[in-house]
Amino acid sequence: MIPPAWHDSGMTTSRDPAATIVEQQVQLRARLPFDDVADFANADRGFIAKLDPCVVTDADGTVVWNNDSYDFLQGECPDSVNPSLWRQSQLVAKQGLYKVVDGIYQVRGLDLSNVTFIEGDEGVIVIDTLLTKETGAAALGLYREHRGERPVKAIIYTHSHADHYGGVKGFVTQEQVDAGEVRIFAPEGFVEHAVSENVFAGTGMNRRAGYMYGAALDRGPRGQVGAGLGQTTSTGEVTLLEPTDIIDTTGHEEVVDGVRMVFQMAPGSEAPAEMLTYFPDFRALCSAEVMTHTFHNLLTLRGALVRDPHVWASYATETIDLFGGDVEVIFASHHWPTWGNENVVEFLSTQRDLYAYVHDQTLRMLNKGMTGPEIAEAIQLPPALENAWNARGYYGSVNHNVKAVYQRYLGWFDGNPSSLWQHTPTEKATRYVEFMGGADAVVAKARESFDAGDFRWVAEVVNHVVFAQPDHAAARELLADTYEQLGYGAECGTWRTWYLSGATELRHGQFGTPTETNAPDVIAQLTPSMLFDAIAIQVNGPQAWDENLSIDVVLTDLDQRYRLRLANGVLTHSAAAQRDEADATLTTTRRALPVLAGGPSADELTAAGIEVTGDASVLARLVAVLDPGDKNFAIVTP
Known about the structure:
By secondary structure, the protein is α+β, with helices and mostly antiparallel strands. 37% of the residues lie in helices and 15% in strands. It has 3 domains: 32-288 and 298-311 and 331-337, Metallo-beta-lactamase domain (Metallo-beta-lactamase, Chain A, 4-Layer Sandwich), CATH 3.60.15; 419-508, Serine Threonine Protein Phosphatase 5, Tetratricopeptide repeat; 526-624, 2-Layer Sandwich (Nonspecific Lipid-transfer Protein, Chain A), CATH 3.30.1050.
């Protein structure tokens, strides 16, 4: 944690773009086809109405979404923003209700993602529900204001990321689903991946997501201008309703409220569980998040499993083969649609070739002995991809995606023995700084590199000073200034927000986790086994070395019994019959089971309706060795 004194340190809050950054922006304007404005026409096509003001609040009146804060994007691009990213942000910041074709409507600009409405005989099918309940309800309200009070007949979760299911309770209730009034479709593996990603590593991912989306940054030409895929994430309540229908086969068809749907499975592409949906009667394809107007992440900066660009590209080929002869419009869970069969097929082909090219060329160079960073510097996209706006790296850069491909095949180790057993960042930094003549000397030399515009080098060496001496004011200020310049130059929206978030925390202290996706609704969907695993990863191993205890958990509604055992610093569980009695037994139901996730006391368990028999003290012993994650852990400081 940054000492409180740093909040009033008098550090520079912002510097003008350096000459090298300004020159970079000039060269980019000359190199890319900014005279191609087809995307702007498509982004405006079908506009019906805005949400005015485009500000969404929660029940307490706290603002959870404010798209009006991006009104500054209507002006000319300043030197403090990469002009290509400025263009993308201008497009993505457009908000309101849009007609895709008769019977298909989208609300865009009310969260990181879009929500799509497919009108049926009587009601409407909702595709993806935004990130939070509040923005979801606002989107539904805008749709109904202009299209009438059509009841929601079905929800489609295209994939397992929170910004595509988290707003579901803004559209429908659990009671409606239980009554059979609403069906919820999702791809195979949806619940497992949606829950595990946001719970097992949820604390770490959510903290890092604050950097990735710049949710705590000021909006403006020197702050957050957009994340490339969408502007940022809303900060309301993340919800989840369990799917009623699981789709597991490409070509599977369903009809809901007179609407025909054909599904294409795409697991392991942008998400572990994902699917596309074709609507034959509309000749319209929802490409989920598999094909969008950017190069997506193969490894998202917030952290996730490495995605497979080879299979990703193969899905695009399959999409063309399945629907390319008929489709007339493609729309996605982000960005704007593309109309016309020829344009749609070209869009799909460009996206396909992008993922395939980066995959294949990375492996070609990898097999020549080049490392991830070396390949990332050497790779060049062919001109047709380099100049295609939908292939630009606004969300997933070519540079970090190449490293992701390398990691997928060869892992973290680059093969050099010196990389095998390195010191920790702090220990390494201490030694580097000493070798380089001390902190003051390093900062003095780094200032020369800063003036020369070598910001990548300044970031590397001054980071060592900050990790060796966190209270070195000059080093912190120079590092913040350096991150700021790197942010100004970044075309990738998430690189910009990451750099500027680092500068912000160096200058003003840590901002924590603005949006948490490991919400109660998500935890409630954990299977018993997943819940026990989520508890197990909180066990402080060394503190639990000498503990030996057992707890039985009996689920009366499922007729299931689990044995939890803590020994050797590990909490394990089994559903097999046991030969001995447990130290304590908890009797409860599946619905009440998530109470265990919070490490409750015996009294809290009783209050939740969980019966405790046997030696209740073992619960306190288990809770005593649990070590939950830190939502405010340090990133740019040791």
